[in-house]
Fold this sequence. Notes:
Layout: H1 3-25, E1 33-42, H2 51-71, E2 76-85, E3 89-97, H3 117-134, E4 138-146, H4 158-170, E5 174-179, H5 184-190, E6 195-198, H6 203-230, H7 236-250
Parallel strand pairs: 1-2, 1-4, 4-5, 5-6
Antiparallel strand pairs: 2-3
Amino acid sequence: xxxxxxxxxxxxxxxxxxxxxxxxxxxxxxxxxxxxxxxxxxxxxxxxxxxxxxxxxxxxxxxxxxxxxxxxxxxxxxxxxxxxxxxxxxxxxxxxxxxxxxxxxxxxxxxxxxxxxxxxxxxxxxxxxxxxxxxxxxxxxxxxxxxxxxxxxxxxxxxxxxxxxxxxxxxxxxxxxxxxxxxxxxxxxxxxxxxxxxxxxxxxxxxxxxxxxxxxxxxxxxxxxxxxxxxxxxxxxxxxxxxxxxxxxxxxxx
Length: 254
């Protein structure tokens, strides 16, 4: 066989093989949902005594999302955003696939500075809304952890934050707030967040708070598998309304 014909023949075989693989792994009855897991973590100076527990807790959440991805790979694609905030906001990961995310290291998390909470939330939610608006089947969980009150934001106010939270809740996004050294219920209410957890500002207190978040995350991902089946064939608005109503009914912390 001439070289050019051989190359063409091999190319055709490769295309046939690729088509077979696509056929074997694609199920028309499965509607893949994109799930964005957003963690907004306080890195102000007051978090220094809780540094190790903060890193371990985040890695625990990450492991839950990894497991959910492995168990539901055909019907879910999970993404991670991790944002630190003190006087400024730093995106460590920005909507990266969970398969590509490494564990957080202690050296990655060095608390210092003040608490730009509104800026951290506002920046994260602006980016999230753009993504969700562009996708047919997608939702998110936003977890905010802070051990103190807002004192350093320059670009967003509480009113900006609540407007964005209300809009995203209407699209079926779940919001969670974990806090200490403040009236956590009042802070959550000021942000229009229904799901909150108070933790003691100790290593053990933060461990318990993260564990409750880990347990709730595992429960949420189990539910999402069923939610996705229940919403098959729905329009984007119908699906978002379903997520919104089920989030309100099922809640987060038990």
